[in-house]
Amino acid sequence: MGAGNRKKNIEDLEPHLLRYGEIGTKSSNVRKHFEDILIDNIERTFLSRNKEVITEKRGLGRIFAYTQNENTYLFSRIFGIVSYSRVKKLNFDLKEIKKQARKFAEDISGTFAVRARRVGEHEYTSQDVEEEVGSVILDENPKLDVDLDDPEHEFHIEIRHSYAYIFTEIEEGPGGLPLSSQGKVLSYVENKYDFLATWMIMKRGARPYVFTDDKKWIERLKIWDPNLKAIEVKNFQEMMSMEHLERGRALVLGDRLEDHRKIENDMMVIRPLIGFIEERIEKGLETIKRLERKGSI
Q: pLDDT of 133-186, one tens digit each?
């Protein structure tokens, strides 16, 4: 269990289920290492905002985090988290799950689906749970219709050994790999293209040392890395002429085919946008804005 800021007991905080994706494809040793980095990043992010969080691992692909509900937007700014949900944690009891299902049925209209997932040994299958709980919802609200393909509402049940976790919403995270799970890079940011390129390399787990001529890019990137290291320079040429520039690190630029900058030394240059059309670039920027809009700094 992660430390976070333990001024409160776990019982005073709301449980949230965090899902990761690519981390789960790694070997067991690498996965454990990446999970630890992700948990450390979660706790550092919350601590940087003076927010309370307590974390714990609960099986492959799942991390649980306990915090106040108003803090959950921070999960959408942590690389490695594919999605997250506020959950209700119960000692597993099918009667209690049905009770929660009745409450769910009271407040909705249209179509719904029940999604069940199990880990551990139980006397029933996931389909058994879906059918029983679905029947309860229909009994409570006969005007509802079942739609397993594209429902308007979903009632999710994750059963893990002796506990059940109930949730009805799934929020988007940035995905990718945890920040600092890969190496360090240098990044020059003077426009939206450089910003997107830097964000993309951060999503791949690399931590950037940012050079920029505008503080707004530093503040923007700090949303994604509260411990961002950055320095202001007048222009690209000033950065390249710095004696202390770490030549051994790769340099990230937002160059495209039509405007790529020529580098006069032997530095490795990473250009994530080099083959992107403008539509794909704008789509990437809109994704970032959507995630940022989920809360204030």
A: 999 999 999 999 999 999 999 999 999 888 899 999 999 999 999 999 999 999
**Which CATH number fits the domain that encloses residue 225?**
3.40.50.620
Token couple for 118: 């199990």
234-265 burial string, b = 16+ CB within 10 Å, else e? Answer: eebeebbeeeebeeebbbbbbbbeeeeeeeee
Same domain, 18 and 62: yes
Q: Find all residues with CB under 8 Å of 123, minimum gap 6, and list them.
A: none
Helix axes 192-203, 215-222, angle to 10 degrees: 30
What are the pLDDT digits (tens) for 22-31? Answer: 998 899 999 9
Token representation of residue 22: 């690519």
94 and 78 in a common domain? no
> What are φ and ψ of residue 191, in 5° steps?
-155, 180
Residue 62's φ and ψ, nearest 5 degrees, are -135, 135
- Which segment of 6-20, 117-131, 134-148 scores lowest on mean pLDDT? 6-20
Q: Exposed/middle/buried for 208, CB within 10 Å: 0-12, 13-18, 19+?
A: buried
Residue whose pair of structure tokens reads 């988290």 in the numeric block? 81
Q: Which domain holds residue 132?
A: 89-171
Alpha carbon 275 to its chain's center: 26
- Alpha carbon distance 47, 247 (integer Å): 33
